[in-house]
Write a structure and sequence with these properties.
- The protein has one domain: TIM Barrel, CATH 3.20.20.70.
- The chain is built from 7 helices and 10 strands.
- The strands form 2 sheets. The protein has an 8-stranded parallel barrel with strand order 1-2-3-4-5-6-7-8, surrounded by 5 helices.
- β2, α2 and β3 form a beta-alpha-beta unit.
Length: 204
């Protein structure tokens, strides 16, 4: 069954609702973003989550010591790296690390094989943005990237296109943030429910 991550969680209400709807993972953004959270905010959310929900910290070119502190003290299960982090940086966090690549064209993925990570998250390239763009990219590139390892597909997904994306790419999982929001940092309960159902082809 396809894994679903709801990213950009900023409050306990949204986190619990996403988990109740069947989200496998929740993402907390520690980098500059309208969805940015603090360590204290996440420490207030994580202990209240049900078991078997994966807690993911999202970081962008941040000091490795801060990433390790967040992982240990929140606590988090996986670090998702959205910046230009090196293969060496990722190895410091292996195996609890997912490396994101912003896809503009085939050259965007040329360096994937150099990274030893648990999975690769493929997101859309938008100038000046590190994620949460709401823009899709060429899914054929994501399908080809699967030869390097598990692929998590992000970028412009919503309830209307997620099943088509899954059918085309056959990813390990899908990742959504702005596609299920009522405002930046606030999830829309209906959109969250409908997205997860659509990803699993449950009746809407």
């Amino acid at each position: 069954m396809i894994r679903v991550k709801i990213c950009g969680i900023t409050n306990l209400e949204d986190a619990l609702w996403a988990a109740r709807c069947g989200a496998d993972a929740l993402g907390f953004v520690f980098a500059p973003s309208p969805r940015r959270v603090t360590l204290d905010q996440v420490r207030g959310i994580v202990p209240n989550l049900p078991p078997y929900v994966t807690k993911v910290g999202v970081f962008v070119d941040q000091d490795l010591a801060f990433v390790k502190e967040a992982m240990a003290t929140c606590p988090l299960d996986v670090a998702q790296l959205q910046g230009s982090e090196s293969p060496e940086y990722c190895r410091e966090l292996f195996p609890r690390v997912v490396k994101a690549f912003r896809v503009k064209d085939a050259r965007s993925l040329a360096n994937m094989a150099n990274y030893r990570v648990a999975a690769y998250l493929l997101d859309s390239y938008v100038e000046g943005r590190d994620g949460g763009t709401g823009t899709a990219f060429n899914w054929d590139l994501a399908r080809d990237a699967g030869r390097h390892g598990p692929v998590i597909l992000g970028g412009g997904l919503n309830k209307h296109n997620v099943w088509l994306a899954i059918t085309m790419v056959q990813p390990y999982g899908v990742d959504v943030s702005s596609g299920v929001e009522s405002a930046a940092g606030r999830k829309d309960p209906v959109k969250v429910r409908d997205f997860i159902q659509a990803a699993r082809q449950e009746s809407l």
